[in-house]
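pasting for the record
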Amino acid sequence: MKRHPKRVSLCMIVKDEEDYLAACLDSVQGFADEVIIVDTGSKDRTVEIASVYGARVISKAWEQDFSKARNAGLERAEGEWILFLDADERLMEGAPEELQKYMGDPGISAMLLQIRNVVGNGESQGETVHPVLRMFRNNPQHRFEGRIHEQIAAAIVRNNPHARFHMTEAVIHHVGYKQEVVLSKKKEMRNIELLKMAIAEEPDNGFHRYNIGVEHLRLGEPEAALAAFRLSRQMPDFDQLNYAHLVIKYEALSLQLLSRWEEAASISEEGVQRYADYTDMWHYLALCSAYCGRLKKAQDAAERAIAIGTAPLGYHTEAGMGTYRTAYLLGKIFEALQDAQGAIRSYVEALRHQPDLLPPLFRMCVYMKASGQGAKLPQLLATRLQCTDAAAALKLSAVLALSGCEQESYAWTKLQASLQKEEQTKRELLHASELLRNGDWSGLPLLASSKEKDTVSAVWRKRADLFLAQSQQARRTEIEKKALTAVRLLLPGNDGW
């Protein structure tokens, strides 16, 4: 057996990565014994930065093939283990220690890490999580395959049919799918072109079809994405593929984006039958069922997702599935069912998972107001939520005001002042409540940045709601009151997103 003088070789391919490379290399300090960087034509300071970190830099012309570039680095690697990262990725704290626990096990051929992809931008930023094979034993037979979305697993299994792939909890943080990064690098169009070349070379490769579907989704082309995912599902041995669950999920997502809700519900139903512990599919089933008007089925599916919680390791998932996002969805389903207790319970659950999330607060306020129970809000919020400082209390005062509950905002602020034990906090809230009593809302957070507080549309919306509220109070039967609640909930407003 070949003896390796080094334990871990970090292998990378880069081009014009001066904004990201240093953070990546910082994250492997003390873990990687050597760094090998294949540069495919950088014109910025990338090579200079790599040299500062002591990396061995190999210049190689770009040949429209990621595997060729990756393999050029592997040829020079001396470590027992290969770790490969992109420049816009970094190992998170604790990852080296997690990986070291298994490096001494001779039965392990490769390790999967959990990659957290930051997606979107600004307020719409989210996160997806899924396992990726990023560390494997150095062996001349282990070489990457595929022009794009290159893979190493097949080569490892060919070399050792009994190879064991170990799932770890080590995390890679990836910022390359943030909107500004994607736009600056024009990633989608580059990937589309490479995938078209790959499909021409291997038309029966379902993985290429799946990946081009993902790129079409990122480009906002759900019709093309749907066609690609359906072609991927027709490939032989689809059920045995480790990404099969994701193809089905993205097929359902494509249909949602096309507003084909019945079809999306059907695919989601198939998804939960195939993968009963896959949280994301239960969340999708809840969402699609709600859009189709099957509210009890939607409630059951959302509650199932929450019971599972975050999807087990091995599934691709999105932040909030089974926790705050599903709880928020369940709250809106209870709103449609006009179940006040269920809605409030769900929104509080969403806040328990994500305390700084504003939409559940807005929906609680909007629902209670629309159902004619706005006066109960200050006491209700005080029993469900604990504000330990003035800033937190005033933030909720602002949410109440922006939800059209000005009187309740004043009452809440005054109530919070009476509950505080710290004198400075009490004085601050009492002062704020006096300002609110006199109609001065300028000191509240969020209101200063609200663009529609006094717009014409906001004024007319307020008048419409006032008329509906008066009509609601005049109704005698419960069914009439609930009908007007449903109408009031349809009025556009600030949801806090």
